[in-house]
Specification:
This protein is α/β, with parallel strands linked by helices. It has five helices and seven strands. The longest helix is centred in the N-terminal third of the chain and has 15 residues, at about 5-20. The protein starts with a helix and ends in a 10-residue tail after the last strand. Mean pLDDT is about 90; it is low at about 5-20.
Length: about 180
Amino acid sequence: MTPQPATIAVFATVLIGAATIAPEPPGYRMERYRAPTPATLAGATVLTTEQAHALWSDRRAAFIDVLARPPRPRGLPPSTIWHPKPRADIPGSIWLPDTGYGALAPVMETYFSNGLAQASAGDRGRELVFYCLKNCWMSWNAAKRAMTLGYTHIVWYPDGTDGWEAHGFPTEARQPLPRPSASE
């Protein structure tokens, strides 16, 4: 029996769709952070762009951006002034760059923990929305990490600022929350 074209098209669509959604790993994603992400995060709520906008409009949650910040270019003389690319962000959010990697140095774990305490005003039950860009594991990792720190109302917005801007929602320039000095 020869498969009909419609059957082949449905099968191909299922395969293509399955290939673009990654399964949830048991731990943190440790490499290739810009890749298809899971559709879920166990223990967290996952939002569409419309849902994220409604939550933002109601001011019911703290929004936390974890997109990595580009480092100063190697070999750039110390006397050269360098300005990193500005970050257009969801208004009112807090930017905790470099906190979505799979493994964090102790100073970055402290930075992340302190940033969450600030965003939540010390309330581990406060709704926290984690995001970065579409197909970026950093927000998935950070949301998962927040749960291990005892935060109980975790929300993951996987489309991040890519989805936000595609819907024409407002953004504003954002600077990262200051990091502790090496002596702290």
